[in-house]
Amino acid sequence: xxxxxxxxxxxxxxxxxxxxxxxxxxxxxxxxxxxxxxxxxxxxxxxxxxxxxxxxxxxxxxxxxxxxxxxxxxxxxxxxxxxxxxxxxxxxxxxxxxxxxxxxxxxxxxxxxxxxxxxxxxxxxxxxxxxxxxxxxxxxxxxxxxxxxxxxxxxxxxxxxxxxxxxxxxxxxxxxxxxxxxxxxxxxxxxxxxxxxxxxxxxxxxxxxxxxxxxxxxxxxxxxxxxxxxxxxxxxxxxxxxxxxxxxxxxxxxxxxxxxxxxxxxxxxxxxxxxxxxxxxxxxxxxxxxxxx
Length: 293
Ligand SMILES: *Cc1c(COP(=O)(O)O)cnc(C)c1O
Hints:
Layout: E1 2-6, E2 9-15, H1 26-41, E3 45-49, H2 55-67, E4 70-75, H3 83-90, E5 94-97, H4 103-116, E6 121-124, H5 131-151, E7 157-162, H6 166-178, E8 183-188, H7 195-208, E9 217-219, H8 232-245, H9 254-267, E10 274-279, H10 283-292
Parallel strand pairs: 2-10, 3-4, 3-6, 4-5, 7-8, 7-10, 8-9
Antiparallel strand pairs: 1-2
Helix pairs in contact: 1-2, 1-5, 2-3, 5-6, 6-7, 8-9
The structure holds pyridoxal-5'-phosphate (PLP).
């Protein structure tokens, strides 16, 4: 949908936060495809990894609960008072906490233990990273194309919050596949370059076999101190976007990316363009923020 003018550009937003399951978001889009594989494979347990405030873990726990399956969350956060963690617990997800350097080992041990007990467990990488997650946003690009065709427009830029970069990788693949020429700009919410950008390139290569990286733009200029960190500009953007449009942004992902997008447009003196912001979800994190403010 169209939102209005932003620094002399026409701003549109794709509301993936409105996907109708468990507060929506990009993790639902990815999980739907992971669970196609899980449902087809006769699994009884899903194991995944995420932080104490992870949207991905909430969605996976909700999807397993809906199926009566077991869910195990490996996390470096033993305790968290976030709404997402609270929901994971309500869904019956079991949290196994470990130190950050023991994550890979804990995942292996947990998977082996489940196999030893005669369970059939499926592992989803943190954030729904991997080809299945990439495919979710390659396919999502068709919705963007459909919208462009219906409205008779083309987007010049697409902005989004980039974490593991899977969502961005999928969008770049979709853009290439449909022949669109817009610039997809991932605003990093945590990772610095060159690694952040390289992970996006690696995801594209894993998925398509192509090493092409000329259209991979991963900007680490708006990280604001790291994952989950935010400043007054981000808070102001969140307040303003809620007041003006009734749209929730959060300080870890979408609020950071939206603020980064504004600064990017100003810095690069971009005007007179059509810009699409992908709202990747995270409403429970907005609620944590407004409640504790
Ligand atoms: C996980 C997440 C992202 C980042 O997605 P990646 O595919 O890991 O880059 C962005 N926004 C929200 C709300 C998320 O939960």
